[in-house]
Amino acid sequence: MLLSLQKGRPFDLAVDVGCGSGQGTLLLAPHFTQVIGTDISPAQLEVALANSSCPAEELPFADGGADLVTSMTTAHWFDRPRFLQEADRLLKPRGCLALISYTLDMDVEYGQHSHSLTDICHQVR
């Protein structure tokens, strides 16, 4: 896992943004002390056995508290610049943002890093 190389263990908090029914959230659970899935859809959260919702661009977590922020097949729905700023706020130093999708054929906009992030997405598709 890239996070192991970047940070080393233990892994404390993973935030799965746009978790839907929680399928990906459950896959993260064995590797972190705490995994929290968020979604804007109350129906999806019911399936995930959660009882609150929040938008990806306004996550209710402290600054610098997450080792990992994921978005599995949902990032294309977000206000990308705002979401990336929010993920940056949440992540610990050397933390990891993982955008997982069926395709990464998208442009990523985040200030002066936009071109580099888009290049990375295009390299791994």
Automatic annotation (TrEMBL):
Residues 15-98 form the Methyltransferase type domain. SUPFAM superfamilies: S-adenosyl-L-methionine-dependent methyltransferases. One of its GO terms (molecular function) is S-adenosylmethionine-dependent methyltransferase activity. InterPro entries: Diverse_substrate_MTase, Methyltransf_11, SAM-dependent_MTases_sf. This is Si:ch211-93g23.2. It comes from Hucho hucho (huchen).
